[in-house]
Amino acid sequence: MFILPYAIMFVGSLKSRAEVLGIPPTYIPREWHFDNYISMWSTPETPVGMNVFSTVLIAGISTLIVLCVAMPAAYYTARFPGRGAFLFVVLLTQMCPPALVVAGLFREFQLFGIVDTYIAMILVNSAFNLAFSTWIMHSFFASVPKEIDDAAQIDGCGLWTVLFRINLPLVWPGIVTAVIFTFVAAWNEFAASLVILSSAEKQPLSVALTKFVGQYETSWQYVFGVSVIAIIPVLILFGLIEKQLVGGLTAGSIK
């Protein structure tokens, strides 16, 4: 049942528009339109190739920034005496839906002159996902006994060495989990991209999909096709990280 929606989406991408809307529906195309995957890259609605590039760029850099900031923040707050209050503040930030602050962000970005730029969306996605990633990593760092840090420091390790050489292998599953959640959230982000990015070639795939939905007709074969393209990088990332996740769990249990 989990695969069924994806199978319907893939089969629909290989049909003509008339067959997609036909009654009764067909489960196997009468005529296979593999050319849909060629023609959708040059449709008048939106430049899909640039949309793919924009999505990869924004999601990739945002995930990297969140990882670099959240990892040391989670580690040091796990050892911080006032971590309870800090985590409460982090939790409060998650109670505000991102859509509520989009208008304010648009105004701020106008003042800084970065509306309709990749920088704006990278900052937005990084800010939206930083608190949640810090929360996830914090629980993993907190499970590492502080005595391990003390022993490493007695042996001459600095704080950064303790973090990267001692703690990082032990909390690797948490790092991988945070990366997956951050990348998928940035990949699927819609509201801020719709408001802040006005250039069609800079908009991500989540916004580009709406361009195929018109007032009088919808190019469903392209909607399905772009949707298939959109899930491929996420599946590849999960396939690559899944091995690392299993390896991290095994390493943590051995240590």
Calculate Rg over CA atoms: 22 Å
CATH class: Mainly Alpha
Structural domain count = 1
| Continuous helix count | 13
Helix content: over 70%
Secondary-structure element order, N to C: HHHHHHHHHHHHH
Q: Which term fits the overall shape?
A: elongated
What can you see in these coordinates?
- With 255 residues, the chain is mostly helical.
- The protein has one domain (48-254): MetI-like (MetI-like fold).
- Helix content is 72%, strand content 0%.
- The chain contains 13 helices and no strands.
- Helix 4 (48-78) runs parallel beside helix 7 (118-142) and helix 10 (172-188) packs antiparallel against helix 13 (220-254).
- The two termini are 38 Å apart.
- Mean pLDDT is 85; it is low at 251-255.
- It is found in: Cell membrane.
- Its main location: membrane.
Compact overview of the structure:
With 255 residues, the protein is mainly alpha-helical.
